[in-house]
From TrEMBL, chain B:
The lineage of its organism: Archaea, Methanobacteriati, Methanobacteriota, Methanomada group, Methanobacteria. Transmembrane segments: none annotated. Residues 1-121 form the NIF system FeS cluster assembly NifU N-terminal domain. GO terms for molecular function: iron ion binding; iron-sulfur cluster binding. InterPro entries: NIF_FeS_clus_asmbl_NifU-like, NIF_FeS_clus_asmbl_NifU_N. This is FeS cluster assembly scaffold protein IscU. Pfam families: NifU_N. It comes from Methanobrevibacter arboriphilus JCM 13429 = DSM 1125. GO terms for biological process: iron-sulfur cluster assembly. It comes from the Archaea.
């Protein structure tokens, strides 16, 4: 199998799994209990917290563990929105048009509850303009939430600049960094963020665990209530094994970042060139420079992405598509719409996301397999004409 | 997600292509999910003598197109006209729920082609 | 080590771990993707859903997976409260005085948001009276949430009767069954519940995963927003390994329930008799009959629980206490208060909770170790006088 869907999820690395293992059956204590077994669990958790903090330049006590990127986004956005709105500070939120549903749906739920939300455009490049942000800010703005890197087209947003503006205007700033952490350098102080979301399974940790960076003295209204764990914000018996896995994944990511970036970038560029050169009417969606090292989002005129992904699957290649046909609600990806693609063009998208375990031979195979599949699908397509 | 039959018709679609100077031609498209299919027919002695399709769409869209060409071939025009969406889905051992309406347009395309044939021959 | 803190958490069973393992590194697909790897993950999840459903007599599509008992409780209680309140059905909630913080804190947060909450008393026995419930019901009552079995004193509430009354009055009924599922028979139809919370780590599954039973046609307002997973109620990339582990834990629990109940009850009774007979002024908190098979909650006059637990830990015995001294906020357990204990008495509580892997020899050891420890602590106690 050639796995090129790393933005969807990644396997748990062997090294990560080995570190997690003892916490299932041996050091299985409840981290909130104070006898030895509980203390072992607690120690594992706190080491993990340190590893997460180090990866993003934060302090340990600025990290809380959550059940994943989605929960992190919800805790951050709802938490700031309710806290500041209750304090009479305003009801306006600024976000982008290409956020992950965990942010987008949270914002739209808040809209229904009386908040006002501005969705910044991203243009053909898939990148927000700082000027647009500036003009969107008003007296009532309490929160800016803009992702670091997009999960579909991989474009990287000008987070540091946005953070600076947020700070100048005394507006809280959250960034969903689920796709960027561990892939490119992320430093909460350089980026000027107050809150930042992380998900473990995107960086070779286990699914169902994540983290939220909360800058010191940033107060949130809780949305979940319980036994007080994780600063009362993500209560419940701690998923110790998962947390330890996330910690180890962060430690490894930090260690290997400098090596991975050029390696992955190189594979990606080779794959892009190989396909664009051999398939006519093939394009890249979104800015090609300001993009995650491993992200490719192709667009092939005249074919539909779900059939393309299925045919690649049959050849043992895993990728994904933003085609309406592959979505639960049969609507085209809001990201592809936001960069201006018509429905018929967004149908033809193929996302391949490369990880450090992909090889040059795999890239060669993919470059060989895609063109005949595209040709086959085009030959049966009712809208393809040479 | 898809039945084996769907996957079979998707990977080895039957009767792909166009017919030059067809006796009837029908194109349908669904605005929500955006699939587009065209069915071409040749009629001889009131029977579907030849049938071909071209489809832009998902696995289900391609499989239903392929399946209807098999179901229709050799049938009388009236019999072919009576093939329903459910007949197509059943012959494929079912389709995923979300795809039942969106990608299951092949019966409509064939009916349109037959209507085109009938209007030309009246 | 003699582990007798099963109500706090349990180890992941070997059989459960083995079933989970492939989902970390091999079948690691995102269950929402439709190529082969994603379908494998999805299939594992759906088998787990069936195993959870079977254990409690539900239909598969009435089960959603969550990140634990705490999230299940929050989704259920906030979900019903907001849904029905928004629909103008009322704002009154009935609960008990001995709920787990996941329920209690949720109810008290709702109180601050304009809901009215009645906390039913439980008396010395630690059990709510159905008559009290009946008189608490009023026009505005939209939700009853009462736990099946208590986590500290193990008392079992008359859920089936309460459910019947809820039904007659057309009031939604949620029960936190985190402590009872897998320990005693739980059937959602016999119990007449509309919603029921489950946590994996209490039944030898992994931490950080749980389930919520939602009776067909019961509508909830979501509290977390994202990619639509788990009926839009618990969104986020599914914790497939964890879910598969919970499923296997449920399957085993169902298989072994009939065998475990008499075995555990027998050990528990032996331990109770052994201690009550050898330690003067020792008592059992809460009703002794209507109680989980594995739960013991002792009370030793004149000593403090945290020191007791630490001394037991030194002997390799793990238990817990409701003593104020061991809590984060230095307040006595609300459960012990609710059964009428004075602060000084609640200090002397020791909870031992027995699981199927405990042995008769372990019980004998505990019966031997406790009396000298109690004696030692009493001999240094300023409030103990023979
Ligand atoms: C950008 C982004 N944000 C948030 C999430 C949600 O994270 P999780 O799946 O851990 O809930 C994802 C991935 O699914 C993502 O790509
Ligand atoms: C009765 C009860 N409800 C809810 C919970 C919370 O479950 P979890 O720890 O999985 O969040 C627990 C245990 O901690 C419990 O004992
Ligand atoms: S063509 Fe769009 S769902 Fe089938
Ligand atoms: S005696 Fe020390 S905390 Fe209570």
């Amino acid at each position: 199998m050639i796995y090129m869907d790393h933005s969807a999820t990644a396997p748990v690395r062997k090294e990560v799994f080995e570190v997690m293992e003892p916490y299932f059956t041996k050091s299985f204590g409840n981290a909130s209990t104070f006898y030895s077994l509980g203390r072992e669990a607690k120690a594992g958790m706190e080491e993990a917290r340190e590893n997460v903090a180090k990866l993003i330049g934060a302090n340990n006590d600025e990290i809380i563990f959550t059940s994943g990127g989605t929960e992190s986004d919800n805790i951050a956005i709802q938490g700031i929105a309710y806290k500041l709105n209750n304090a009479g500070k305003g009801n306006h939120i600024i976000t982008s048009a290409i956020e992950h549903p965990a942010v987008m749906e949270t914002c739209s739920a808040l809209e229904k509850k009386g908040f006002e939300v501005t969705y910044l455009p991203v243009y053909e490049e898939g990148i927000v303009k700082v000027e647009d942000l500036k003009s969107a800010i008003k007296e009532e703005t309490i929160l800016i939430t803009i992702m670091h890197a997009n999960n579909e087209i991989g474009t990287i947003q000008p987070i540091a600049e946005i953070g600076k503006i947020a700070k100048e205007n005394n507006i809280k700033f959250h960034s969903d960094a689920v796709q960027s952490v561990g892939k490119i350098p992320v430093d909460v102080n350089e980026l000027n963020v107050d809150l930042l979301s992380i998900s473990s399974h995107k960086i070779y940790g286990p699914k169902g665990v994540g983290a939220l960076y909360i800058r010191k003295r940033t107060r949130l209204e809780p949305i979940l209530y319980g036994g007080g764990q994780e600063k009362d914000l993500s209560p419940g018996t701690e998923n110790v094994a998962g947390i330890v896995g996330l910690g180890e994944a962060c430690r490894l990511a930090k260690e290997e970042l400098d090596e991975n970036i050029p390696y992955i970038t190189n594979l990606r560029n080779k794959l892009i060139d190989g396909i664009l050169n051999s398939v006519e009417k093939s394009y890249i969606n979104g800015n090609i420079e300001k993009r995650l090292p491993g992200n490719i989002n192709f667009r092939f005129t005249g074919i539909e992405g779900e059939s393309l992904v299925l045919m690649l699957d049959a050849k043992g290649i895993d990728g994904s598509t933003g085609s309406a046909c592959s979505s639960k609600k049969l609507t085209a990806s809001h990201v592809l719409k936001a960069i201006g693609l018509e429905d018929v063009d967004s149908h033809g998208s193929l996302r391949l996301t490369i990880g450090p375990e992909n090889t040059e031979e795999e890239v060669d195979t993919v470059i060989k397999e895609i063109p005949p599949i595209v040709e086959k699908l085009r030959s049966m397509s009712s809208i393809w004409e040479k | 997600m898809y039945s084996e039959k769907v996957m079979d018709h998707f990977t080895n679609p039957r009767n792909v292509g166009e017919i030059e100077n067809p006796d009837g031609e029908g194109t349908v498209g669904n605005p929500t999910c955006g699939d587009m299919m065209t069915i071409y027919i040749k009629v001889k002695d009131d029977k579907i003598d030849d049938i071909k399709f071209k489809t832009f769409g998902c696995g289900a869209a391609i499989a239903t197109s392929s399946m209807i060409t098999e179901l229709a071939k050799g049938k009388t025009v009236d019999e072919a006209y009576a093939i329903s969406r459910d007949d197509v889905a059943d012959s494929l051992d079912g389709l995923p729920k979300v795809k039942m309406h969106c990608s299951n347009l092949a019966a409509d395309a064939l009916q349109k082609a037959i209507e085109d044939y009938r209007s030309k021959n009246n």
